[in-house]
Amino acid sequence: MKNNVAPNRPDDEREDEHVGHSHSHGGGSHSDGSHSDGSHSSGSHSSGSHSSGSHSSGSHSSGSHSSGSHSDAHHAHAHAHAPAAGHGRAFALAVALNVAIVMMQAVYGVIAHSTALLADAGHNLSDVLGLLLAWGATWLATRRPSARFTFGFGSSSILASLANAALLLFACGVIVAEAIGRLMNPAPVAGLAVFVVATVGMVVNGISAWLFMRGQKEDLNIRGAFLHMAADAGVSAAVALSGLAILYTNWTWLDPVMSLLVVAVIVYGTWGLLRDSAHLALDAVPPGVDMQRIRDYLADQPGVVDVHDLHVWALSTTGNALSAHLVMPAGHPGDESLDGIVVTLRERFSMQHATLQVDLGTTEHRCAMDHPPHAH
């Protein structure tokens, strides 16, 4: 898992910042400011007291505020995670190969009067744009947070995967339009040229897909690049087969029909990418995260009698964040205890950024997200 970034969020989910905090460890308190009832003021928590008129925070843990082991906790909760090694080179090579393929397919598509070949060239062009988007997002994910973008730029990978899915679907629409036009107005097709060029395209796109196979299961952004390349390899294979068939049968209608069949396969494979990307963009619980297991783990911690305000969202296509309130009537358990919980949340549940708040339970607290919206 790597870098974490999220869009603007309510203050109660942005408490885990290293800017502007002060910490007091006397008398069992851990202070970051003040915390008012019902909502979290923008940078503030105070612990050790919990009055009926205000909701004060017993603890604020970001995994790096342990008085005894600050350095270890900081490394356990790093804010920047580099992308998998080699993906930069993979993007550069895939972009270069696909630009060459686009130029070759476009030229020979015109020469051979092949709609399928031209459609494949258009699809490859969309892949170049998609690869550039994914590459840019991977680079942005390595940028450090700033005063304005306090979570960094990791969420750009979510936007890139969403854009990649949209580009794939747009390319499919172009292919369908061209194929229908060719079915209605058949034209002679140079089967041998189509076969040779499409075969070259299939090999190049197969190599490009292989470059991204390693990280596509863990990173939705890399998965988008992989699907682009794999889909192109499939398109090129289908076009090559149609060219070979036309060479021996002269059935020119095979060219557009094969394009339509390939489109159906691409749409089927792209739908999952579009769905998952949209879910992450809307701050849904990331795939593979079991909220009940996380809640049970937190509830089983010593001194915890209740867990509420539990929120999980994606900071990037490979990083997740969590915020939760732990009701602990005995008070703050100490930074070392909370840092241990944060480490476990990261290692066992893939929560790269965890914010924990301790409540004494002396007032009734409702999550701000549970309140009905204000009437305008």
UniProtKB/TrEMBL annotation:
Keyword vocabulary terms for this entry: Ion transport, Membrane, Transmembrane, Transmembrane helix, Transport, Zinc, Zinc transport
Protein name (record): Cobalt-zinc-cadmium efflux system protein
Compositional bias of kind Low complexity: 39-70
Presence of the UniProt keyword Ion transport in the record: yes
The Cation efflux protein cytoplasmic domain, residue ranges: 286-359
Domain Cation efflux protein transmembrane: 93-278
GO molecular function: zinc ion transmembrane transporter activity
